[in-house]
Design goal:
The protein is α+β, with helices and mostly antiparallel strands. It is built from ten helices and eleven strands. The strands form two sheets. Strands 7-8-6-9-10-11 form a six-stranded mixed sheet, sandwiched between helices.
Length: about 400
């Protein structure tokens, strides 16, 4: 189930699959086959083997209205009843359904047809009697029986009372009442299972929300609320793989707050923490939609820029640096030093094919460029391109 975090297109997809363990839990409750559909009505799983996973889109009206649908799966006709699974924003993300062989219900339908045939045959025989017997002893019971059948058609499963039919119809009455009892029991069973499925759906929703919360905490820096170092490393690996696959560049910015130790020594650690939070806010505000901002560690921050070459990354870095310098003057002034590196522009031709080696080398090159900015007086951006190059003064945002 999708987790909505802002990230570059094609770089990160976070999901929480409904596993066989969860399906087994549902199956234990239902004691029947369980089927899982995605929100396009495609079969994506179940607790039984299927030769062909087909689309049930043509049954979507039944599925969306929680009506029983008769479907064909692996050459077997089954009755299926689906309930939607929703995320915390109440969007339908999947459907879970319980299957039951159509044989039992079809047999019940056949029994009803046979019973109705017997009723018709009985009527023909009885109509052969005398008119007064027909009026007194046949027509009235038949009328009551027809009313009983019409009640069944309306979904009112009410047995016939003893006084409603004469003795001649005792067997017919008993059979009719037996049929009503079986139908009523069957629908009560379906209703109970629907209630259990609804309860399971609530439990699943609660589990998914807890997992979302736990995952978000695991990838978030507690102080700045940016992504943490662990997420940065994972996302760098994923982004490099994706960009390399489509032959597009990936740049990164590594930045450090100038004289941060002085902040702590002069104003105290609480002001130091507030400074980190302020810088995190500036970076988030000036980052582009697909950029990923993370706290790298201590007073260092990192920005991943998918599909961005070295010059474009430098422009982004300078925009961030200038904004921090200018806006922070309203309070305690802050400046930052930045190092920019890009794959593949900052690499030799004989670059490794190993993604982790490329990632570590890219981070190292950005770190060297950051050190160069500090060495040259701080409050500047430097890029790494097969060695150091000072930024041309004509490159502007």
């Amino acid at each position: 189930m999708p987790v909505q975090y802002q990230r570059p297109k094609g770089v990160l997809v976070l999901t929480y699959p409904i596993t066989r363990e969860v399906l087994s839990k549902i199956a234990d409750v239902q004691q029947r086959k369980i089927l899982l559909l995605d929100n396009n009505y495609e079969i994506i799983g179940g607790n039984f083997y299927m030769e062909n996973k087909i689309s049930l889109e043509k049954y979507k009206d039944n599925i969306n209205n929680s009506k029983i649908a008769k479907v064909k799966i692996d050459n077997e006709m089954v009755y299926a009843n689906f309930l939607p699974i929703v995320d915390r924003t109440n969007n339908i993300i999947a459907y879970v359904g319980a299957l039951k062989s159509s044989e039992a219900i079809d047999n019940l339908e056949n029994s009803i047809k046979i019973l109705l045939s017997l009723v018709i045959i009985g009527l023909i025989i009885l109509l052969a009697g005398a008119s007064w017997i027909m009026t007194q002893n046949i027509m009235n019971p038949i009328d009551r029986l027809i009313k009983g059948i019409k009640r069944v058609e309306k979904g009112e499963y009410i047995p016939l009372k003893d006084q409603e039919l004469s003795r001649e119809f005792e067997i017919l009455r008993n059979n009719f009442n037996s049929m009503i009892e079986k139908i009523s029991e069957n629908f009560m069973e379906i209703k109970q299972r629907d209630e259990k499925l609804t309860h399971i759906n609530k439990e699943l929703k609660s589990i998914i929300m807890e997992k979302e919360k736990a995952y978000k905490l695991s990838i978030t820096d507690g102080l700045t609320k940016l992504y943490n170092h662990r997420y940065f490393q994972e996302e760098m690996t994923s982004a490099l793989f994706d960009m390399k696959k489509i032959n597009k560049p990936l740049s990164m910015i590594l930045l450090d707050i100038d004289f941060f130790k002085k902040f702590n020594d002069t104003y105290g650690h609480q002001v130091g923490d507030e400074t980190l939070i302020r810088v995190a806010g500036y970076l988030t505000l000036t980052a582009r939609k697909n950029d990923i901002v993370a706290r790298y560690g201590g007073e260092e921050f990192a920005v991943i820029l998918p599909g961005t070459n070295l010059k474009e990354a430098y422009i982004v870095a300078e925009r961030m640096r200038n904004y921090i310098e200018i806006d922070s003057k309203k309070n305690i002034p802050i400046t930052v030093s930045m190092g920019v590196a890009c794959f593949p522009e900052s690499f030799d031709r004989n670059v490794s094919e190993n993604i982790n080696e490329i990632k570590n080398s890219l981070i190292n090159k950005a770190d060297i460029a950051l050190y160069y900015s500090k060495k040259k007086g701080r409050n500047k951006s430097s890029l790494y391109n097969n060695g150091f190059e000072e930024i041309d003064s004509d490159i502007k945002d």
